[in-house]
Design brief:
Blueprint lengths: L2 H16 L2 H5 L4
Length: 29
């Protein structure tokens, strides 16, 4: 796993902790 992938997973985990509502509102899903 390279650093970029690690950062992506980190950001994903933070978004999950914040809740999916924000990503749904911005149309990520």
């Amino acid at each position: 796993m390279n650093p970029e992938q690690f950062i992506e997973k980190n950001v994903e985990a933070k978004l999950i902790k914040l809740g999916f509502s924000s990503s749904i509102c911005s149309g990520q899903l």
